[in-house]
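Hi everyone, sorry if this is the wrong subforum. Our group has a chain we'd like a structural model of before ordering constructs, and none of us has done structure prediction before. Sequence below.
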Amino acid sequence: MATEGAVNGAAWGGVQGFVTFTHDNRNRFLQVFGLYVLSLHMIGGLVAMLPLLLFDPEHIILVDPVGYFVRYGLPVTAISAFLFWRLYTSHTEAICRKLAVREVTRIDERRFVRLAEEQCIALGIRKPRFGLIEVSQPNALAVGEGPQRGLIAVTRGLLDQLDDDELAAVLANLASQIRNGDTSVLAANFALMRTAVLMQVNNAFRIEDWRQLIIVVFLPPMLTILLLSGMITKASLEIARMARRSVKLSRFHIADAEAIRVTHRPDALHSALVKIGGKGAFPGSAVFDDVLFDGRSDTDGGSHPAVIDRLKAIARLGGPMMQPGRARRDTRDGVAVPGAGGLADGRVGFGRRYTAAHFQPVAPAEEKPREKPPVMENDALLVMMLTDWKGYKAYVAQCNDWFEWRTNDGRNLFGLKPELRLPVAAVTAGLLVLYWPADGNWQKLANRFNPVSMTTMFSQLDTGRTFCTPSSGKNEDCA
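Answer:
Right subforum, don't worry. Here is the predicted structure as tokens:
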């Protein structure tokens, strides 16, 4: 099998053939979902502390983790699954909305839809949808939550620049990504990352303003809670980024191999890559680089293998089938063009000595860097939410995008911004000096910052008993 030959060897991640790769994708989907549930449990346990302190202080996660999971583990998992499903199934719509994908049919784009349907039928993709992005750069993408909910979208530039065989090879590659489960894993990664970002933006139990430290002075256990919450939020974001980086580069090689198996035209896929490589970036595409046919290589921080490596793999895999002089279908002009494709003079590019310099990414001139959203106070946000719902949603979306696509915001292990490290360190040092036990009793100092003491306080308030701190002396009221 062509696919098996294409993915043979450890150089491509040790995945052997289409069947093994598809099974590997299913396992990775389950792993991402497991990480998603773990992230929500970590942060959910802290977010639930406030209501649990009032109604069930003995079972907060920092006091009795086992009791917390026994009592609240199943409901939190159910909520996690529901939220995951909501975000997972919204992945396609989010991309279509951000990239202005217009869904088309044979009536709208006969050539594109006809060729796409042929490749989907050959690869067993049922009920596919097709979309068009009106930009001049040549590129395409495949998204969907599975073979029954796949969508393939191409740019106008791709339709204009590729002949029929080249276009068919690209479409077969995209259909293969849907069939192999690549798009399902990417949608799961989207759900994990979006949830981690929401935690980062909306977690009230983390230090984002120096004024939060005032409550720590009067309630020292809150320092422990805030630092732990910031650490867990930071960890959940890193877990999401790790899952995104784990998307295998071999998926593009396997999709290329499947495209050759279906079309029997390695020369067409080769020349299509020559035309597209490094030229596919268009406004807004950087955010969804991982779902694009042409995107940034892994050496540039992207998720694609270098174009030159894909070309070499195609040459190794499809060498015996390469026929550079073979006539190509090209219904753009209604006639078959011998050797159409690869180069400007009509010659096929196979056999030419390409280097990485030929495929340096070309950024669109109008592409602007992401801007940091303005900081708004909570009361201003509340007013905006009540008076300008669309503006409020746009602002929240801008905040989420800003947090999601930054590779590093300078936060440390505790999720603290650089400008907050010194104030937190100063307050911590002040509290240690203030509450340092004269008798050297370390247990008394630890109890002062132990969140369990808050549980004791709320339990005593609930029963009407006299409040006693862990360091207070025993008497008849505290007995």
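For your construct planning: Residues 1-435 form one domain. The first helix runs from residue 2 to 6.
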